[in-house]
Design goal:
The protein has 7 helices and 7 strands. The protein has about 170 residues and is an alpha/beta fold. Strands 1, 2, 3, 4, 5, 6 and 7 form a 7-stranded mixed β-sheet that branches. It has a single domain (about 5-170), classed as P-loop containing nucleotide triphosphate hydrolases (Rossmann fold). About 40% of the residues lie in helices and about 30% in strands.
Length: about 170
Amino acid sequence: MSLCKMTSDKLNFKICMIGTNFHLIQHLGRLTADSTFKIDYSSTVGSDFGLKTVKIRSTEVKLKIYIVSRAKYKALRSMYYQGAHGCLIFYDKGDLDSFKKVEELCHEFQEIQGKLVPIGLVAVNGNNKSISSEEGQQLAKTLNLHYFECPLSDLSQMDLIFTRLTELILTQD
C-alpha cells in the first residue's frame, strides 16, 4: 500500500485505461464512472478523465481514471502513464489488430511507468469473437497481466474489474 495517497479517510489511485479503440474504452469508462467525463478534451488531445469510487471492505477508494488514446499524441501519453497505480489494457475479441498491439502497449506503459504496478488485460466481447478466451489468457500469462473479460451485453463486469484491480493495488508490496 506504499503507492497510495491518504486524504482524510479515503484512498486515491490513478488508473490508466489504454488500447487501440479509444471510443470503445471511453464508452466503457463513461458507463462505469461516478462523474461525467469531460467530452471536450477527448477530441483535442485524445484523452478523457473520470472518477469512480469503489468500496473495499470498509475502505472507500477513489479512482482517478485516465483514458488514453493509443493513436494520438504519443508525447502526451507519458504524462498520463507516470504515477499510475494500475492500468487496464483493452482489446476487442473481434479485432485481431487490437489483440496484436497488447504487448506493445504493455511494454510502453511499463517503460514509461518505471515501476511494477498491477496491469489488467481486458477482453471486450462483442458479437464477433475471432480471438478465443484461451488466447487472451495465454497472452496475459506471458506478459504477467491479470486477465478479465467484459461482454458488451453485461457492462456491470467493469465494476468488478475496477474492484479487482483496486484490490490488487492494495495488496501489492
